[in-house]
Amino acid sequence: MSRAKVVAMSHDRSLNQVRRPVAGRIRLACVLSALGALAGLAPFVGLVELTDALLATPVDRDRVAVVAVLIVGGLVLRGGLMSAALTITHIADVRLQAILRRRMIAHLGRVPLGWFARNSSGRLRKTAMGDVDALHQLVAHQAVEVTAAAVTPLGALAYLVILDWRLALLAIATIPLYIAAYAWMERGSNEVIRKLDESNARLGSALVEFISGIAVVKAFGRARKAHAAYRQAATEYTDFFAAWVQPMNRIEALAGLLVSAPVVGLIAVAGGAWFVSQGWVSAGEAVACVLLACVIPVAIEPLGFAAMNQRGAKAAAQRIHELLQVPALPAPKSPQRPSGHGVEYRSVRFAYDGHEVLHGVSFTCEPGSVTALVGPSGSGKSTLATLLPRFHDVTGGAIHIGGVDIRDIDPAELYRLVGFVLQDVQLLGGSIRDNVALGRPQATDSEIADACRAAMIHDRITALPRGYDSVVGQDVRLSGGEAQRISIARALLADTPILVLDEATAFADPESEAAIQDALSRLVGGRTVLVIAHRLATITSADQIVVLDRGQVVETGTHTELLAVRGQYARMWDAHEGVAA
């Protein structure tokens, strides 16, 4: 079986699974659409009767009146049934979008936090927003329109066959050529759509990165040369799309001409006139042939667009399905509660993509103490720290809190125990109050204000026109240092007994550094703290310093003890002092 066919089958399964919650509603809408399409043929049947009645002598006025009522009734019935079908599918579309977005939000809330660091925010946004929106046409319109597009010509052909089989052949004389043209265009289209989606995803990801870094790029005068990935992604997408579309446009124009009303109508009129002259059909039947011949291609035209829409929807459904299949953070069947706030790393190993980066790391963080992790870049500091709040799970050994393996602690309970303040501050697009209270939504205004005072940011907030109701990104643009103090206030309010701290002042502006240090001193008080140290001068008072190199512990002790040993830490300190001097 070819790869393209395997991919197509996978997309079909994904689409069926994603669409399953509203499949029953869609089927009901299709039934109504089919009945509406058949009702829409009543006016054409009536026109045959009406033509014959008007050409008869004398004119049967009662028959004409009955036929006119039936024509109007058919049109009204068709409109009512199609309207009901579209109403059902639009309601189904809204319901499906709500279900999918709720499922994604709920599922992403259970996904390990480390997964988000490995996956582009542009791709995630495209799946959560764009791909769900891409299902709208398929669910809300396509099922109804395709059903009508299929039933209308089939019903029309059946009626023409009843009148005279030659009329049926005349009505579809150009359809085989139209189908052949579209079949030629469809060759390899599944693979083309897949590559187009991949290219579009790369473009979206590159665009997010470009926008995120443009301020830094312009500041250093590298705006023209930076972000080559974005330019390359945009060029690849444009070139690929143009190379695919240009030849298709010519074929599509020819196919459209073959089923256009003038061409089809001319063939039907000429053939119908000849049939009447031969005495094979009546004038009314010839009129019906002309009208239905023009209706059939118009009715089946949505089928071509439906095929393209469905391919795009299948690819979107595949990405949604893959997102919902991302392994969730395993939750314990019988959760345990820690008996204290001490942290112990026991022979911890961790491998990423088959490459082990931690090799049996062991150390203990006593309750209420500060432990600093130091070492060269790539030594495993950040990996060790992020394993504690289960950004990832260890691949060997264990991490214990209060004597309990963190994998045996309910994730919600774990996040009530372990908080973290990182250099890369993430603030939501809501009010400052909501950002501070993220970890404790039930916190009072007084508690929020107290946390902000302790974080040295309260005065800045109250100086804003809307105060704590100011929306981040709209009412106020916060500097890096101000955003960092908001995150510290958030951690203070959450009041977790264990804290992972990625040295928050490493990239702070000089005006903010002192305020952040004061806020941190209030934050770490009485907590079990694990610090990722970037500047050694900031951790000289730590209760314990763990020196890492190539994923292993090479030294452990206080600042004074490690300097006396004259080992790796001492060499790092001498280098640090030399730079500072």
From TrEMBL:
<comment type="similarity">
    <text>Belongs to the ABC transporter superfamily. Siderophore-Fe(3+) uptake transporter (SIUT) (TC 3.A.1.21) family.</text>
</comment>
<keyword id="KW-0997">Cell inner membrane</keyword>
<feature type="transmembrane region" description="Helical">
    <location>
        <begin position="168"/>
        <end position="185"/>
    </location>
</feature>
<dbReference type="Pfam" id="PF00005">
    <property type="entry name" value="ABC_tran"/>
</dbReference>
<dbReference type="GO" id="GO:0005886">
    <property type="term" value="C:plasma membrane"/>
</dbReference>
<feature type="transmembrane region" description="Helical">
    <location>
        <begin position="26"/>
        <end position="45"/>
    </location>
</feature>
<feature type="domain" description="ABC transmembrane type-1">
    <location>
        <begin position="28"/>
        <end position="293"/>
    </location>
</feature>
<dbReference type="InterPro" id="IPR027417">
    <property type="entry name" value="P-loop_NTPase"/>
</dbReference>
<dbReference type="InterPro" id="IPR017871">
    <property type="entry name" value="ABC_transporter-like_CS"/>
</dbReference>
<feature type="transmembrane region" description="Helical">
    <location>
        <begin position="65"/>
        <end position="92"/>
    </location>
</feature>
<feature type="transmembrane region" description="Helical">
    <location>
        <begin position="253"/>
        <end position="274"/>
    </location>
</feature>
<protein>
    <submittedName>
        <fullName>ATP-binding cassette, subfamily B</fullName>
    </submittedName>
</protein>
<feature type="domain" description="ABC transporter">
    <location>
        <begin position="343"/>
        <end position="575"/>
    </location>
</feature>
<keyword id="KW-0067">ATP-binding</keyword>
<feature type="transmembrane region" description="Helical">
    <location>
        <begin position="280"/>
        <end position="300"/>
    </location>
</feature>
<dbReference type="GO" id="GO:0140359">
    <property type="term" value="F:ABC-type transporter activity"/>
</dbReference>
<dbReference type="InterPro" id="IPR036640">
    <property type="entry name" value="ABC1_TM_sf"/>
</dbReference>
<keyword id="KW-0472">Membrane</keyword>
<keyword id="KW-0812">Transmembrane</keyword>
<dbReference type="Pfam" id="PF00664">
    <property type="entry name" value="ABC_membrane"/>
</dbReference>
<dbReference type="GO" id="GO:0034040">
    <property type="term" value="F:ATPase-coupled lipid transmembrane transporter activity"/>
</dbReference>
<dbReference type="InterPro" id="IPR039421">
    <property type="entry name" value="Type_1_exporter"/>
</dbReference>
<keyword id="KW-0547">Nucleotide-binding</keyword>
<keyword id="KW-1003">Cell membrane</keyword>
<dbReference type="InterPro" id="IPR003439">
    <property type="entry name" value="ABC_transporter-like_ATP-bd"/>
</dbReference>
<dbReference type="GO" id="GO:0016887">
    <property type="term" value="F:ATP hydrolysis activity"/>
</dbReference>
<dbReference type="InterPro" id="IPR011527">
    <property type="entry name" value="ABC1_TM_dom"/>
</dbReference>
<dbReference type="InterPro" id="IPR003593">
    <property type="entry name" value="AAA+_ATPase"/>
</dbReference>
<dbReference type="GO" id="GO:0005524">
    <property type="term" value="F:ATP binding"/>
</dbReference>
<keyword id="KW-0813">Transport</keyword>
<keyword id="KW-1133">Transmembrane helix</keyword>
